[in-house]
Specification:
82 residues, mainly alpha, transmembrane helix, membrane
């Protein structure tokens, strides 16, 4: 029963404040997110995707060869008229 008497009373909710440390941590995390986003955007811009797309797992070899032949016809038609 002695331990019940040693428990301090709860703090007054009107006097409790968060302080500067949590605010600094949130600011640092926000800055890290901005820097990571900028880096990701830079890396995504470097990716070169072909105009006819990238073959997926579900596409068969015939689909890929048809796309390639269509691309070749498109390129040859552009050089003949130009």
């Amino acid at each position: 029963m002695i331990w019940l008497q040693t428990v301090p009373p709860p703090p007054d909710p009107n006097t409790v404040v968060a302080g500067w440390i949590p605010m600094v941590l949130v600011a640092v995390l926000g800055l890290a997110m901005v820097l990571l986003f900028r880096s990701m955007r830079k890396q995504m811009r470097r990716i070169d995707i072909p105009e006819n797309g990238v073959p997926t797992r579900g596409s068969s070899q015939a689909d890929v060869s048809a796309q390639e032949s269509a691309q070749v016809k498109k390129e040859s038609a552009g050089t003949e008229s130009g």
